Amino acid sequence: MIVVTGATGQLGQLVIKALLKKVPAKNIVAAVRNVEKAKDIAALGVQVRHADYNQPASWDVALKGADKVLLISSSEVGQRSKQHKTVIDAAKRAGVKLLAYTSVLRADTSPLGLATEHKETEEYLRDSGVPFALLRHGWYTENYTAGIPAALAHNAVFGCAADGRISSATRADYAEADAAVLTADNQAGKVYELAGDTSYTLTEFAAEIAHQTGKAIGYVNLPEAEYEKALLGAGLPGFLAQLLADSDTGVSKGALFDDSKQLSKLIGRPTTALAEVVKAAL
Do 45 and 16 share a structural domain? Predict the structure, then answer.
């Protein structure tokens, strides 16, 4: 039995879709905070169980009979470490044989502010005694293609990544890799640095949008504080604006570049090309 946390999230739904190609639906459990939102998942024959980070006892029920657990990192930045510990503690009580955790690329050495809670979770997991695998995800290409409407409106891509290279892949690519690890044998102790096969700068990203739309769109590199201010002006919440600006600065330091191709090896095919994701977004 495989339990997937955060199963109604964007990544969680894709992981379940990938798992259904490999194991019977009855062997998959979707652990969710809001059962009502999981009706489509339940319709696939997947078990849906309630689990709330603020209710530790709910995880004992959610993980009952679990052999493997995919702990998809929480979306609540600032609360993640505490929330992840709740799941890890429950996994230990349940005696799970493998807990796979979706961390961030090179979490132990990353300059990203976002990496702090991932590093804390990894350390807690190591000390817990629970057999684990680390699925260190690089950036989702969708993180940038989501900004295409704004780029078209302003005839520019804005950021503070300088000439840093981004080895991103789609959520679906990462979901397939996560499912591959969950359904493979002898994964305890393994650490995967997962990233796209190819990389690009934001200048190249802007050029791809320009190429596909025929519009003159370039990249404007700003100081981090100015980029954060621009994001706030665009209506983003303060914490998200700060996170995105910090992440772009991390890109300039090489935080999201990786050429090991571990992701494509796991999924048995090349990762989805940038041009393809831009085309789909347009």
Answer: yes
